[in-house]
Specification:
The protein is of the alpha+beta class. The protein is 48% helix and 19% strand. The two termini are 58 Å apart.
């Protein structure tokens, strides 16, 4: 299971998308998480009825800090021991005075069919050394255990350990564990312990040997293939030094071969201290791979300034040196630098595609092949489609390297043909020098016109943002009996969120909140159209008719794959009518009952259906009640661990809003956004509208 994680990350880093893809793959693999702590865990034969022939035992064991060999006895009373994860994560250890040594105990009820014969104790991960006791008897030692940290030899193997359960009904498994380098492992990989699984002995013994054999053959072939590409393009540079792109590509592929070799070595020492040593080399090599990948893509387009190209290389080399000297301290900064390089590579390719740079489509094909391989890897890891992860990853990354090499070869051939053609033209058109100069001047003018056009588009984008903001109300209305406040933060220059209001002749207040698909210029156009329809129809139709007519109008704009979530709230004294089209639920805090209700109305976004049967709901608000209307950017806000905010924390703020005004509630919510996102710019537009009935 864990070697699939690493193989996925290999190709993701090598092909510039590891930052985005790795969390998905890890999430798909980490499908075993326990929250219960059974006193006696039952082990039965039917638990082996899966493709991997693995019994996933709970990773939460009883734990005690210290060292006492009496704790191995099955008769020892451990009821006062705490249950914690054997992974020994920082969260678990935050409440313990951990000094690097401790004991784990687990009581098992083993089915008679599984006793008296060997089972495989699978070492899924292990950082340190340990002694394993079954019913008080030592059955295995992983590494060399010692109370002296300097004498500890960490376990560095992946072979399964045979374990035989006796015929007793209840059995005790105890682990004497030490990790003297827990501070180092916690900083680099986020946990300090181990994880054991059980499995069929014959299956996993054979799988261990087959894996090593297959890994050695396939990995050496793949590394050899990369080295061949590196040598060929280095020789091309040696024979034609003017073509620097071959040198940068050769260095890039050479470091890629080194990185692949390090990764495949790590497969042999999965989640051990040996892998941490290799991880040190990996951290540096990843930076160098992306550094020269960026330099290679810059060398394709002559429009990049030499200083800009060189400064990126200097940054990459300095970063790699600092990562080598201070791996733990530089870990987060290194990830930022990698992300910058990835975005720069993608930006460079996009710019060249936009400029119709000849042959750049080949690089696009290579990236597409990698993306297909990456998606296939994720689907294989979550058992949606069958396949071999290692083969798919190698095929995807090989396709990318091959596409880059073909691009260089094709570009070189075209360059030679163009030179030959130009020489003939010079011989034939020797007397037309003045005409050639005129053509050169025209090209220079075209270049300047292109730059002016880019500047014009930039100004237009800034003007579009100013126009969009000008279309939004500068402040919410002051209506007797209501306290209203609003907040909006866009993710790009032109956002896709929208809010507005209208006051009818009878005093009814109509609030509107919308969320266009995505953001950018097209989303801004969608917002402008929605505002126009809203103010045209709000006085003529009820809320459901308003939604249907707006939906038809936006659909007639024929903006491909562009839709608009929309919400209308009619406020008349203490009665509120809510109608929505593809928007998150409205949160209604009931002051008297001290609870928050979700007002959920299903409906497709505007522009997606000609005559969708939208729904509406009427509610009443009492004194101190609060309504929160929001776009999905608030609920779907990610923290640094890629967890979404949801509604629970938002509801807690509403429950504590007794003494708050609507503006105070907005301030509390914006502080929640800042804390949750860690100050990171949001990926989507966020709009909130709060209405409170004063007490």
């Amino acid at each position: 299971m864990m070697r699939q994680d690493k193989t996925t990350r290999v190709v993701a880093v090598l092909c510039f998308l590891v930052i985005a893809a790795l969390p998905v793959v890890l999430l798909a693999q980490d499908d075993f998480f326990q929250v219960t702590e059974p006193e006696i865990e039952e082990i039965t034969p039917d638990m082996l009825d899966n493709e991997e022939m693995i019994i996933y035992i709970h990773d939460r064991w009883r734990f005690q800090i210290g060292d006492n060999t009496d704790w191995a006895s099955p008769d020892y009373e451990d009821s006062d021991w705490d249950f914690i994860s054997t992974n020994l994560t920082p969260t678990e250890l935050a409440f313990l005075d951990w000094n690097g040594i401790g004991w784990f105990r687990k009581t098992l009820s083993v089915h008679p069919e599984l006793t008296g014969k060997p089972l495989a104790l699978i070492i899924d991960r292990h950082l340190g050394a340990s002694e394993i006791y079954l019913n008080g008897e030592k059955v295995a030692e992983l590494g060399t255990f010692s109370e002296n940290p300097d004498q500890v030899v960490s376990y560095n193997d992946r072979k399964p350990i045979p374990i035989v359960f006796s015929n007793e009904e209840v059995q005790t498994l105890a682990v004497r564990f030490t990790n003297p380098n827990y501070i180092y492992t916690e900083m680099l990989i986020g946990y300090n312990g181990f994880r054991f699984l059980l499995g069929d002995w014959q299956t996993h013994q054979d799988e261990s040997y087959n894996f090593i054999a297959n890994l050695n053959s396939s990995s050496m072939f793949y590394v050899g293939l990369l080295l061949a590409f590196a040598i060929i393009h280095f020789l091309l540079f040696a024979f034609y030094p003017a073509e620097w792109r071959n040198l940068y590509f050769s260095i890039f592929v050479g470091f890629l071969a080194v990185l692949s070799y390090v990764y495949f070595r790590m497969e042999l020492y999965s989640h051990t201290f040996e892998s941490l040593d290799l991880f040190h080399y990996l951290l540096v090599t990843e930076v160098l791979v992306l550094t020269f990948a960026t330099r290679f893509t810059h060398s394709i387009d002559d429009n990049f300034a030499p200083f800009y190209k060189d400064i990126m290389v200097v940054i990459g080399i300095l970063t790699s040196i600092l990562v080598w000297l201070f791996p733990a301290q530089m870990f987060f900064i290194r990830e930022i630098i990698l992300l910058v390089f990835i975005l720069e590579i993608l930006r460079t390719i996009a710019v060249m595609l936009y400029k119709n740079r000849s042959g750049v489509w080949l690089l696009g094909v290579g990236v597409l092949l990698f993306l297909i391989a990456l998606v296939s890897t994720v689907l294989i890891n979550i058992n949606i489609i069958p396949g071999n992860v290692q083969f798919v990853n190698m095929a995807g990354s090989s396709g990318l390297i091959l596409a880059m090499s073909i691009f260089l070869s094709r570009d070189f051939a075209f360059t030679q043909k163009n030179l030959e053609s130009k020489l003939k033209e010079v011989q034939v058109l020797n007397k037309k020098t003045l005409e050639q100069e005129r053509i050169n001047k025209e090209r220079e003018i075209e270049k300047r016109l292109l730059e002016a056009e880019n500047e014009r588009k930039t100004r237009e984008l800034e003007e579009a943002r100013a126009l969009q903001l000008s279309m939004l109300p500068q402040k919410m209305p002051s209506v007797n009996g209501y306290d209203i406040a609003v907040f909006m933060e866009t993710a790009t220059e032109v956002g896709g969120d929208y809010y507005d209001y209208s006051i009818e002749q009878d005093g009814t207040l109509v609030l509107a909140l919308g969320d266009a698909t995505g953001h950018g210029m097209k989303a801004g156009i969608m917002v402008a159209a929605a505002k126009s329809y809203f103010h045209t129809l709000v006085h003529e139709a009820d809320s459901l008719t308003l939604l249907k007519r707006m939906s038809n109008g936006l659909r007639n704009l024929d903006m491909k794959l562009m839709y608009m979530g929309f919400m209308v709230v009619q406020c008349k004294q203490d009665e509120f009518e809510i109608a929505t089209a593809g928007m998150p639920p409205v949160l209604h805090f009931k002051n008297r009952e001290r609870r928050v209700d979700d007002v959920v109305l299903k409906g497709l976004p505007l522009g997606s259906s000609i005559d969708y049967p939208y729904e509406r709901k009427k509610i009443q608000l009492g004194q101190g009640d609060v309504l929160l209307m929001m776009s999905d950017g608030l609920m779907e806000l990610f923290d640094p661990n890629r967890e979404m905010l949801g509604t629970e924390k938002i509801a807690e703020i509403l429950k504590n809003s007794n003494s708050y005004s609507a503006g105070d509630i907005i301030n509390q919510l914006t502080q929640l956004i800042e804390r949750w996102s860690g100050g990171k710019e949001p990926d989507d537009d966020i709009t909130m509208m709060v209405l409170k009935i004063p007490e």
